[in-house]
Amino acid sequence: MIEKSIKKLIIYANRHLFLSDNDLIYAQNMLLGYFGCAAPYEGEVDVKAIEEMEVPDEIVAELTDDLIAQGLSAGEAERKVVFALGALSPRPSAVEDAFDELYQADPKEATEYLYGISVANWYVRKTQIDKNIVFDAKFDQGSDLEVSINLSKPEKKNSDIAKLLVAKSTSYPLCLLCPENLGFYGHDRHPARGNLRYVEMELEGRTWYLQFSPYGYFDRHCILFQKEHEQMVVDHRIYATLLAFVERFPHYFMGSNADLPIVGGSILNHEHFQGGAHILPVMRAKEKAPFKVSSPNVQGAVLDFYDTTLVLKSLDKEELLSVADKILACWRGYDDEENEILHGDASTCHNTITAIARKVGDEFRLYMILRNNRCDSRYPDGIFHVHPERSHIKSEGIGLIEASGLFILPARLKRQGAEVEDVIANGLSHEEALAKYPDIEPFFPMIEEMKTKKLSLHDYLGSVCQNILHDVAVFKDNERGRAGLAKFLEVCDL
Which residues span the domain enclosing 245? Predict the structure, then answer.
């Protein structure tokens, strides 16, 4: 019954979304009209149960079912519910004002307020996120990794991501990261954003917006996106912006994907960063070898990590930036044919850097992961990308999060992993396995390896993720790779 669901939603907004008692009748009448109801529900509802709710999922499900029963499609029903939740949430200007006031007392309280609103109004789908399968991958040698079979994230192809760089923007909003998404009703090709809330800030002379990710790959996963719809570019300004953000919000890290297909993120046509409260595995990695830096106030080291990661540390932000600029400038034009590294030519760039900034006490830290997106006949999807023998586990680009040691694996692996375990547990033959699971063919090498080495599914997945980062490393952890990295750092003349 829609009227009953509306009553529950109004009570929920009053208890969890700061809807004032003085606005209850107004809000009720607005929703009754919006959903085509003549009068409110007069019966009783369980107010205590609503007060104890952490998320509105139960009410959302009831209202969505009511709308579908009236003949709406599932997509249109969800868009209407999202719009209603947005209408019952604090206005964007009120969120901005509350955030700014809280920030003056404690930056963490400000971000917690924005996160709380985003969870309570169903923008951050916490219930769905909590279903993700998450585990640590621990190794006798090498840094531990984190693995998530993410049930809330659709898998993307590198070819689709690359198309964004040349795609003609004709829709409104231009992309999922444009500020015009605020309050957007949505349609079949663009998700509803009626309940989106973000806050504005000025960083390095430009306007940026901070919101939380609806997918939430890790604790307090947030997105910082630029006002202008401009292609991602890794340069001095980007590093300066990352450091300015963590200076303002020292309880979060903030990182930038690389600016090229394959090694970059899923949206390259709108400048944005990702951050949050999580300590990524790369941040826990030990320092393997220091390298010389002319600035007495900056320390540099190669990390003992799987991909090629440098870290710069300093109390002086500007001096750290100066060293980072030198590394980027040198890497952009650097060639090392022995290690298969070619920077490109006048029209093509292959070398770039994935960067992550954080603050530890008063010290700034900038993690710089060297990347290259060259392809050849052996590796048409990328020489320093996931190699074909591991694509049954992950074929997407290895962006900021994975390159830092937290793997977001596709939801299909929940089913496929269970099928593999079933084949092993029941000793099914090749023919029996194919008959039962027609798409299991790519997983037979995995089955054999798990049987031979007596690996659990989690052990196998962790090992694959470890090897993927070895694939991604531009300088491999062998004699040739270590010599190549040492030569690069010498050429940089830091």
Answer: 128-406+483-492
